[in-house]
Amino acid sequence: MAERPALFVGLAIYVVGSVLCMTASSIEMLLLGRGVQALGGCAGPVLSRAILRDLFDRYQGARLMAVISLVMGFAPAFAPVLGGYLEVAFGWRSIFVVLTLLGALVLGLMVWLLEETNQSPHGGRRDGVLSLVLEYPRLLRSAPFIGYTLITGFTMASIFVYVAATPFVLIDMLGLRPDLYGWYAIIPTLANLAGSALATRLTLRLGGEPMILLGGVAILVGGLATLACALVGYITVAAVIVPMCCIHVGSGLMFPSATQGAVSLFPQRAGTASSLNGFLQMQLAALAVTGLLPGSAHVGMAAMMAAGAVLTVLSIPLSRRRPRAA
């Protein structure tokens, strides 16, 4: 399936999931709706990378991906705050009313404005699920693809561990009020926006590989600083948030180039490469979160974040491997 109809289907599923959440009468129905939301919502990030690959070369695509990341960064920064106000003023269902309306608006705009970008002779063929699955081994045999995927996956792992553990550290251990926590949580996201903004300016000038290396260094500094603070018992709000800002800046710098690097390796299978890349990222991040041990929130969080940062940097040489000419 070409990108345009696949995006429409994904957005439509997202709207259906939002309606299910909005009208849920039990926690089971709410969880089902959230699952349907996630199923449809993944079409956006996956297909946006494929569309960029259709329209632009790798470095132009990476620069525009940085712009998209800059815009997307506002959602995790302010969504918890806006959601909290909506819940207090109108109840929790109002959150899903807004999401339903936004999903329907985006779907309408895409139908109106988006033209098909995949001009490949095979872009419009209807591949079955089996044919798509059979493409995965080819992607997984590519060392650069695995390298780019590990870079982004281990970075996401550090970020997900922070998101999962930091409420326990800041609220339970340091006594931060829950209403203040939401505002403190915005700070690292703003750092990510700063990294993405820098990436929009530097990617075409420096190239994708230097941006990945520069971002990896920032991520490594943040991860090791978090671990050092935890090991010496220095637990303050600044000791938790400032190193995370380094990781987020590094993520903003390297993520666009790394994701576009993975997709650009397979121009005729950009959608398949993007979907597998995104799936493996989320799996690595989920595995990292499950590795957190109860009762050791700060040290466990710091250790997992540092491990993710180190593995991010160690994956960079793999992404630079290219097959030798015959």
Structure at a glance:
This protein is mainly alpha-helical. The protein has 13 helices and no strands.
Describe the model.
The structure is a single chain. With 326 residues, the chain is mainly alpha-helical. The protein folds into 2 domains: 1-41 and 73-114, no CATH class; 128-319, Growth Hormone, Chain: A. It is 83% helix and 0% strand. The protein is built from 13 helices and no strands. It has helices at residues 3-22, 27-41, 43-55, 58-72, 74-90, 93-113, 129-140, 143-173, 178-206, 208-231, 237-264, 270-290, 297-319. The longest helix has 31 residues, at 143-173. It is globular, with a radius of gyration of 20 Å. The two termini are 33 Å apart. 42% of the residues are buried.
Descriptive tags:
326 residues; mainly alpha; Growth Hormone, Chain: A
Q: How do the SSEs run, as a string of H and E?
A: HHHHHHHHHHHHH
What helical percentage do the residues reach? Answer: over 70%
Number of helices: 13
Q: What structural class is derived from the secondary structure elements? A: mainly alpha
The total tally of domains equals: 2
At the fourth CATH level, what is the homologous superfamily of the largest domain?
MFS general substrate transporter like domains
Count the beta strands: 0
Could you name the CATH topology of the largest domain?
Growth Hormone, Chain: A
CATH class division of the largest domain: Mainly Alpha
If you average the pLDDT, what whole number results? 81
Shape: globular
Largest sheet: number of strands, sense, barrel closure: none
Strand content: under 5%
Write down the Rg: 20 Å
**Uncertain spans:** none
